[in-house]
Amino acid sequence: MLDETAKFLANQYPILLTAEQIQAKVREMAKQISTDYAGKCPVFIGVLNGSFMFFADLLRHIKIDCEVDFIKISSYGEAMRTSGLVKVRKDLDCHIEGRHVIVVEDIIDSGLSVTFLKKKMSEMKPESLKFVSLLVKEGSAQVEYSCDYAGFRIPNRFVVGYGLDYAQKLRNLPAIYVMD
Ligand code: IMP
Ligand code: MG
Fold first, then answer.
1. Can you say how many angstroms the Cα of residue 161 is from the centroid of all Cα atoms in its chain?
2. Which pLDDT belongs to residue 80?
3. Which of 55, 87, 104, 132 meets the CB 3.0–4.6 Å disulfide criterion with 149?
4. What are the tens digits of pLDDT across the range 47-65?
């Protein structure tokens, strides 16, 4: 019997973005960010767990000095929908006061996570604060938010792979699939 990962890899579920499409977009985003932050040394903050793969790929293509840190938040639990309540599971270790901060998300859905992070990090008085997300879902926002670097705008469907999970699994897939 095929396990979940194998079923996706065997294309039993529709593919939304191939590994090649993702990698091309990641390079393009890294190039733009490297240009925009030339001469600066930003701190990239990865939002765990979902962004780990995008974060690692993006940072490989950043051509300027930078630092990294991570924050872990949760809002979904094991479900396919946000619980509406964002909790910090692991806080930042670095000081971001006076720094150029770039928060790296996997996907923006309701917008509650980025809104929560923006408020929390603004209070720490960074020199600048911008948000990067590989994916932005259309028509699912529950609050008004801004995303400075958005990779792909995707339909309002549940997607997995490339860091995105369903019940903690399928993050290891190199492409992104529609699951619902
Ligand atoms: P938001 O707070 O509703 O914008 O959701 C943000 C977080 O929910 C993302 O960083 C993901 O971790 C998770 N999420 C949202 N949509 C999906 C999805 O389609 N698949 C997997 N995780 C998702
Ligand atoms: Mg996330």
1. 12
2. 63
3. 132
4. 999 999 999 999 999 999 9
CB-neighbour burial class of residue 66 (10 A; exposed 0-12, middle 13-18, buried 19+): middle
* Dist. CA 175–CA 104, nearest whole Å: 18
The atom number, within ligand 1, closest to the CA of 113 reads 2
Give the pTM: 0.95
Give the bridge partners for 68, in sequence order: 44
Instruction: Give the per-residue pLDDT at 77.
Output: 59
Cα 88 to Cα 166: distance, rounded to the nearest angstrom: 20
Q: What separation in Å is there between the alpha carbon of 7 and the centre of ligand 2?
A: 24
- The residues pairing with 131 across neighbouring beta strands, listed in sequence order, are 103
Sign of CA dihedral 121, 170, 78, 156: positive
Q: Whose CA is nearest to atom 16 of ligand 1?
A: 109
User: Is 109 one of the catalytic residues?
Assistant: yes
Mutation test residue for ligand 1: of 88, 107, 133, 168, the one with most atoms within 8 Å of CB: 107
Please work out whether the CB of residue 112 comes within 6 Å of at least one atom of ligand 1.
Answer: yes
pLDDT at 79 exceeding the cut of 70: no
**How many angstroms separate the CA atoms of 42 and 67, rounded?**
6
Two tokens at 69? 């840190």
> In this structure, are residues 8 and 160 in contact, taking their beta carbons and an 8 Å threshold?
yes
Structure tokens at 130: 């911008």
CA-to-CA distance for 129 and 103, rounded, in angstroms? 8
